[in-house]
Design brief:
CATH architecture of the largest domain: Alpha-Beta Complex
Number of strands: 12
CATH class of the largest domain: Alpha Beta
Order of helices and strands: HHEEEHHEHEEEHHHEHEHHEHEE
Strand order of the largest sheet: 8-10-7-11-9-12
Shape: globular
Distance between the termini: 75 Å
Helix content: 25-40%
CATH topology of the largest domain: Phosphoribosyl-aminoimidazole Synthetase, Chain A, domain 2
Radius of gyration: 22 Å
Largest sheet: 6 strands, mixed
Number of helices: 12
Length: 339
């Protein structure tokens, strides 16, 4: 091959800076490695992440989830809030994963941008690693892609991938749910990572008070440690619904048998201020709010009432809040009814 001319970097001229990419790896390496546990083989820099499965299961089932954080990314870009969006990404994946009773094993991330900006990129990926470390789900690997011409201006995207494990006999699939079981709503930290296209439209027309804006930017609650501890200590959860896109209206029925419906008392909890602001400024009906947003309930658990006090001990231990928001009934027509 012919020698390049001095200081010539054709790839950089095309918009991809390999040196910045290498500097980013140097900046995030310590944070990523800090999320690892004894099951992770080797560190960062190889072609693949290696994880030793030493959990003792009679019939182990691998569980996998992937998700993103939607247009909440745009809001973080607008307000230069990059250090918490990583927790949103981890939460959207592992909260789905634990809904079937699985324990998260490890996490992978994908970060793509028009142009790598070292400070911003480092904050985002360090935020992913921090959430993985705090919730015992090692960041095993990832991909950072600089894609000029594909992503415009300062735009970027994030995707996450979580892998977990559950014993086949311990899978929570809702099949054991019967009439007259309690539905316990575990509180959310805000809209989490859903409904942000609508939220951003409202923000373009209305200026919210600081407390509302803070609630809209607040990262998604991660429920994995709480759920896994409940299951390890044999709290018999019969159904777990992660309240994401589609709100309570679409997510609770996903875990119910065809013969069972949910009856929800909307007066059982007070809708947080951020949701009231959204509803008032968007002139949104109650039915639509319940179909779009979590309305303050991030997780719905179905449990026999005799185990409620045991469940509440773990809710309190993990500094979460909850309400009994309804019960299961025999289904006549609708899978979910509000009163």
């Amino acid at each position: 091959m012919s020698k390049s001319s001095k200081n010539s970097d054709p790839y950089s001229k095309a918009g991809v800076n390999i040196d910045i990419g290498n500097k980013l790896i140097s900046q995030i390496k310590k944070s990523v490695v800090s999320s690892h546990n004894a099951n992770v083989i080797d560190g960062i820099g190889g072609f693949a992440g290696l994880y030793e499965i030493n959990q003792k299961f009679k019939n182990p089932v691998i569980v996998a989830c992937t998700d993103g954080v939607g247009t909440k990314l745009n809001l973080c870009l607008q307000y230069q809030k990059f250090n918490t969006i990583g927790q949103d990404l981890v939460a959207m994946c592992v909260n789905d994963l634990v809904a079937c009773g699985a324990k998260p094993l490890f996490f992978l991330d994908y970060y793509a941008t028009s142009k790598l900006e070292l400070h911003q990129s480092s904050k985002i990926i360090k935020g992913v690693a921090k959430a993985c470390r705090e919730f015992s789900c090692p960041l095993l690997g990832g991909e950072t892609a600089e894609m000029p011409g594909h992503y415009k201006a300062d735009n970027f995207d994030l995707a996450g991938f979580s892998v977990g494990i559950v014993d086949k006999k311990s899978i929570i699939d809702g099949k054991k749910i019967k009439p007259n079981e309690l539905i316990v709503g575990v509180c959310s930290s805000g809209p989490h990572s859903n409904g942000y296209s609508l939220i951003r439209k409202l923000l373009s027309k209305h200026s919210p008070p600081k407390n509302i804006l803070n609630a809209l930017l607040r990262p998604t609650t991660i429920y994995s440690l709480f759920i896994n501890e409940c299951l390890e200590d044999n709290i018999p959860l019969k159904g777990i619904a992660h309240i994401t896109g589609g709100g309570l209206t679409e997510n609770i029925p996903r875990i119910l048998p065809n013969t069972i419906a949910a009856e929800i008392d909307t007066s059982a909890w007070k809708q947080p201020a951020a949701f009231r602001w959204i509803q008032e400024n968007g002139k949104i009906s109650d039915d639509e709010m319940l179909k779009i947003f979590n309305c303050g309930i991030g997780l719905a658990l179905i449990i026999n009432k005799k185990y409620l006090s045991d469940l509440n001990k773990y809710i309190n231990k993990h500094k979460l809040k909850s309400f009994v928001i309804g019960k299961t009934i025999r289904r006549n027509s609708s899978a979910i009814n509000y009163y």
